[in-house]
Amino acid sequence: MITQSNAVPRQDLATSDDEFLEDVLDGLSQRQKTLPCKYFYDERGSQLFDDICQTEDYYVTRTERAIMERYIPEMAALVGPGASILEFGSGVGEKIRRLLTSLEAPHSYTPMDISYEPLMASAEQLRQEFPSLTVDPVCGDYLQPWPSMPVFLRSSQRLVYFPGSTLSNFTPEQASDFLSRIAKLLGSGGGLLIGVDLIKPIEVLHDAYNDREGVTAEFNKNVLSRINQALDGNFNLESFEHNAFFNEQHNRIEMHLCSQVDQRVEIAGQEFRFSQGESIHTENSYKYSTQHLHQLFSRTGYRVVDFWTDPNQYFSVHYCTV
Ligand code: AVI
């Protein structure tokens, strides 16, 4: 059954316009102007991200899906029967279905997401599809202190599922902190099933973040539309250009929006100057080697039990225990 205990109203949990404004003013006041990548994901941005996942150039989604398809019986055998699963950033619950159908008698599923309506709708749907599963949605930002999750914590067979290489968008410090927090939550014997993108030839990375259809460019620029709409900004979208490149020193794709001209932009009455060529840094997407990942897991309290990749070794799925 769905417990609605955590179903507090959406406006209590989603980022407020005040926080959005504060983050934007703060980010654009830095020497290297920045915007937090979490603001990509309004309704339009989430739709654009789904579209990116379907482009030919963005290998991430289909490669992870292929690994899951091929090795899920092995993963399920390692997890064992009766698991209680917590998924961070569950979205519309698309990826969990495959796992739920493969695991032996999963006991409960706790999806955590910041978007209230899609979270509740997908929980309802899953309850119908898996009548014996307890579904306990929790609405919240997983980078903030976590809301209570009583169903998950009652279980001694805990599994955290963190697919999609969301870890890539964390700074190295955030990644370590987040993994350590999860390890504490899981406790001894708990498991982590996590999908993380790997280092690969630069051309492949470049094409994935500069797709031929221009969807990633639109996704990147959408954050400016969001600022215009929600924060009374006057960005001229035509005068900014999408720029994504691999920073070899930091092993990360960086996404920027580059001003094409000298210009001034006003947001909520505050003026920002841009010189021609100056950029706003909007996202980092870190690429890991398996060796680096193993060091990271071991530093944050895990033992790698097994991991799976695709034939090109573009992406990895790891199963670790605490
Ligand atoms: C969500 N995240 C893993 C994506 C990535 O590849 O870093 C976000 C994205 N940015 C541009 N394309 C996709």
TrEMBL record:
Chain segments annotated as transmembrane: none
Pfam families: Methyltransf_33
GO molecular function: methyltransferase activity
Keywords per UniProt: Methyltransferase, Transferase
Classification via Gene3D superfamilies: Vaccinia Virus protein VP39 (3.40.50.150)
GO biological process: methylation
Sequence ranges assigned to domain Histidine-specific methyltransferase SAM-dependent in this UniProt record: 21-321
Family matches, as InterPro entries: EgtD, EgtD_Methyltrsf_superfamily, MeTrfase_dom, MeTrfase_EgtD-like, SAM-dependent_MTases_sf
The protein's name: Dimethylhistidine N-methyltransferase
Organism of this sequence: Marinibactrum halimedae
Source organism phylogeny: Bacteria, Pseudomonadati, Pseudomonadota, Gammaproteobacteria, Cellvibrionales
